[in-house]
Amino acid sequence: MGPPKRKLSASLRPNLTTLRSEAARCRACDLWKNATQTVFGEGARTARVMFVGEQPGDREDREGRPFVGPSGAVLEAAMAEAGVDRSKAYVTNAVKHFKWEPRGKRRIHQKPNAAEIAACKPWLAAEISAVRPAIVVALGATAARVLLGPAFRVTRDRGKIVETDDGGRVMATVHPSSILRAPDAAARLRERRRFVADLRKVARAFPG
């Protein structure tokens, strides 16, 4: 089974419960073969802010929930500091299955390719249609390019609120995992402050 084929309109606003059930059976690409399960988005059905990452990680794959691992802890703490209410937000990923390679007993993240990202894009579009957020925050380059096109560069345009052709609003920033990968404590602190500053722009522009 693949993602919904029809173009979604306001009169065909999808239901998140139905979408989650359908996505659990998705076979639009081969990532499902090595994943434990589909990891669909979760959060408030009427969220004003939606966060979109790249793909689930090891812990997310095992638990079936987005952003519950180390990156999720960074995101949640930054949201709280920036004044974004986690209970009123929606979090998801551009790709719904964990892509990995074995390294000893560990499962190491692999970047999804263009075909895998394209196969999952209709699910993300359906989530956006269902939630209708005031703004979508793209976390990292993969999510930013899915939402804003291949020419977008997070390093150049992070923190800018962009209006899309369909009237939506997107702001791109780094993925919280990049903060964890910073080379030392000082760099992690610096990058975390920049990340929180980006999220504060969202909180000020779209309160509640």
Give a description of the structure.
- The structure is a single chain.
- The protein has 208 residues and is an alpha/beta fold.
- It has a single domain (14-205), classed as Uracil-DNA glycosylase-like domain (Uracil-DNA Glycosylase, subunit E, 3-Layer(aba) Sandwich), CATH 3.40.470.
- Helices cover 40% and strands 15% of the residues.
- It has helices at residues 16-23, 58-63, 70-82, 114-131, 141-148, 154-157, 176-180, 185-205, and strands at residues 42-43, 49-53, 90-93, 100-103, 106-109, 135-139, 161-163, 169-173.
- Helix 3 (70-82) crosses helix 8.
- The longest helix is centred in the last third of the chain and has 21 residues, at 185-205.
- The chain starts with 15 loop residues before the first helix and ends with a helix.
- The model is unreliable at 5-11 (pLDDT under 50).
- From the 3D structure, determine the CATH topology: Uracil-DNA Glycosylase, subunit E
Question: How many beta strands in the DSSP annotation?
Answer: 8
Q: How many H/I helical runs?
A: 8
List the strand order in the largest sheet: 1-3-2-6-8-7
Oligomer: single chain
The coarse overall form would be: globular
Q: Which sequence of SSEs, written as H and E, runs from N to C?
A: HEEHHEEEHEHHEEHH
- Give me the CATH superfamily: Uracil-DNA glycosylase-like domain
Strand content: 15-25%
CATH class: Alpha Beta
What count of domains describes the coordinates? 1
Main beta sheet strand tally, sense and closure: 6 strands, mixed
The end-to-end span amounts to 37 Å
**Are there runs of 5+ residues with pLDDT below 50, and where?**
5-11
